[in-house]
Amino acid sequence: AQTVTQSQPEMSVQEAETVTLSCTYDTSESDYYLFWYKQPPSRQMILVIRQEAYKQQNATENRFSVNFQKAAKSFSLKISDSQLGDAAMYFCAYRSAPDSWGKLQFGAGTQVVVTP
Amino acid sequence: GAVVSQHPSWVICKSGTSVKIECRSLDFQATTMFWYRQFPKQSLMLMATSNEGSKATYEQGVEKDKFLINHASLTLSTLTVTSAHPEDSSFYICSATLAGLETQYFGPGTRLLVL
């Protein structure tokens, strides 16, 4: 079974600064998907970014980018120019590509605190 | 696009009663829906996976007679917590996906408080 590890329970960042959240995973598969979801205080899960394992290019979405290191099984999220609205719990998730149902395996989450 | 709704957003019930939570995909047909439970400051715990027109598959440790799941159409899945007890109080989240798509889209969640 795959496991997803987020080793940082909480990260603090000042507005306009950059913060990087770490995520590692354990798998024997070669084809899979990785996701970062954001859960603000409203508790609505919001997709931030996704990465296909077969793509070497790191995914980016505006101020959010990932550093995908397949060999190291690492998938970190960088939030640039942090804003107060970025304060939330961030979850890293793994999805096996052969899994037709598409179950997600979530990490424990990292709480991001943004200070003015 | 890819909007998922849940109803109700919060519910308070008495111990021993049953509560039904609805999950709807508003702008796409969801072949698969998932139900999660989340305790405060914890990650999401998958309870079950349901495919339209077939029985749900429950994760180990989840009582299928306690948490009844029905996925009667491509846009609606329901979770019924039967004979609810205070320990069932939690935040329940559904998500939906379409065959061939790799992303799950989440509903806003339902807060259940059992007195």
Q: How do you describe this structure in short?
A:
The complex is a heterodimer of chains A (116) and B (115). With 116 residues, chain A is mainly β.
Structural overview:
The complex is a heterodimer of chains A (116) and B (115). With 116 residues, chain A is an all-beta fold. Chain A is 0% helix and 53% strand. Chain A has no helices and twelve strands. In chain A, strand 8 (64-69) and strand 9 form a beta hairpin. Chain B starts with a strand and ends with a strand. In chain B, a hairpin with a 5-residue loop joins strand 5 and strand 6 (57-58). The model of chain B has no long low-confidence stretch (mean pLDDT 92). In chain B, strands 2, 4, 5, 6, 9, 10 and 11 form a seven-stranded mixed beta sheet that branches. A four-stranded antiparallel beta sheet of chain B has the order 1-3-8-7, with no helix packed on it. With 115 residues, chain B is mostly beta strands. The chains are: A mainly beta (116), B mainly beta (115).
Number of strands of chain B: 11
Shape of chain B: globular
Biggest sheet overview of chain A: 6 strands, mixed
Biggest interface and which pair forms it? Answer: A-B, 23 and 23 residues
What is the helix content of chain A? Answer: under 10%
Q: Secondary-structure element order of chain B, as H and E?
A: EEEEEEEEEEE
The computed structural class of chain B is: mainly beta
Outline the low-pLDDT stretches of chain B. Answer: none
